[in-house]
Design goal:
Elements (H helix, E strand, L loop, with lengths): L6 H14 L2 E5 L9 H12 L5 E4 L4 H11 L6 E4 L2 E4 L1 H10 L1 H9 L7
Parallel strand pairs: 1-2
Antiparallel strand pairs: 1-3, 3-4
Helix pairs in contact: 1-3, 2-4
């Protein structure tokens, strides 16, 4: 019988992922094979900005899927983090892209084309 993963361990794992990568996208599926329209739209926006994405497929790990919602206090996936800070979900990322705010954030963070 497998033991459930402790909530604290999940939260620590999420924090470590966010700290280890400049751009982290918690999403359904992968950038090459998104499993929902919101994840696909968020990936498309980030690709337009030539940003290297560390994607975490929440469908592959139910503990991460539940844990990320608690970690960010945000009820939906996808969730984008840039330089350790929660940016938002699909609608916020799209709005930031349309207003130019996302381009400014990426430029300020020196993330264009960064393979990290």
């Amino acid at each position: 019988m497998t033991e459930p993963i402790a909530v604290a361990d999940v939260q620590a794992n999420i924090a470590a992922l966010i700290a280890a990568h400049p751009v982290v996208l918690f999403m359904k599926g992968t950038p090459a094979r998104p499993q929902c329209g919101f994840s696909a739209a968020t990936v498309a926006v980030l690709q337009r900005h030539d940003v290297s994405i560390h994607a975490v497929d929440v469908l592959a790990d139910p503990a991460i899927r539940a844990g990320i919602k608690t970690y960010s206090d945000w009820p939906t996936v996808p969730q984008l983090y840039i330089n350790g800070e929660f940016v938002g979900g699909c609608d916020i990322v799209r709005e930031m892209h349309e207003s130019g705010e996302l381009a400014e954030l990426i430029a300020a963070s020196d993330l264009r084309g960064a393979a990290r």
